Amino acid sequence: MTIDSANPLPASVDAVIELLASQDYVCDRRLATALFLALKLQRPLFLEGEPGVGKTELAKALAGALDALLLRVQCYEGLDVAQTAYEWNVARQMIEIRLAEAAHDVDHDRLAKNLYARDMLIERPLLQALTQTRSPVLLIDELDRADEPFDAYLLEVLAENQLTIPELGTIRAAAPPITLITSNRTREV
């Protein structure tokens, strides 16, 4: 994980409890142990339980305590890549095409390369989580409300800390996100 020296990761389970207490989050030893191990192993933490028990608040408290950016994907049925990872800025791409046509300077290869350049992307939370210089806290909230194909899509992001954009290539995290995934048990995850 890449957290700056002013806000290092907790060095023990007791330090996790103290860290969260600084954000007025009461954490028992079992949860603190699970969070400590997730941080140490740089793996996502899956939190399952009834609504209202503090799963989402844990992510908020952790982000606050580490002074890290909190990025949230709120899951629901029909969620797709354009809403969670990225989408192409089609309006800007159309302007680029019109400008090239107006200038009578249509080099199709160069235009195609420019249309699918990095600065033509609109970053959504999953891609944002991979492009930060410091590890953000990524909250994937209520994963059980999303469709199963979305679970499969998350595998690359969560397992490899990378995201593949067919037109652009693979983007790898320089500072892997601290990921918390929540579920309210509305379906088997």
Question: What's the short story on this structure?
Answer:
41% of the residues lie in helices and 18% in strands. The two termini are 26 Å apart.
Task: Write down the overall geometry.
Answer: elongated
* Model regions low in confidence, pLDDT < 50 over at least 5 residues: none
Largest sheet: 4 strands, parallel
Proportion of beta-strand residues: 15-25%
The ordered H/E elements are HHEHEHEHHEHEHEEE
How many β-strand stretches?
8
Structural class: alpha/beta
**Number of continuous helical runs:** 8
How are the strands of the largest sheet arranged? Answer: 1-8-5-2
The whole-angstrom Rg is 19 Å
Can you give a write-up of this model?
It is a single chain. By secondary structure, this protein is of the alpha/beta class. Helix content is 41%, strand content 18%. The protein contains eight helices and eight strands. The chain has helices spanning 13-21, 29-41, 55-66, 81-84, 90-102, 108-115, 125-130, 148-160, and strands spanning 45-48, 70-74, 86-88, 121-123, 137-141, 162-165, 169-172, 178-183. Strands 1-8-5-2 form a four-stranded parallel β-sheet. A two-stranded antiparallel ribbon has the order 3-4. A hairpin with a 3-residue loop joins strand 6 (162-165) and strand 7. Helix 1 crosses helix 2 (29-41). The relative contact order is 0.19.
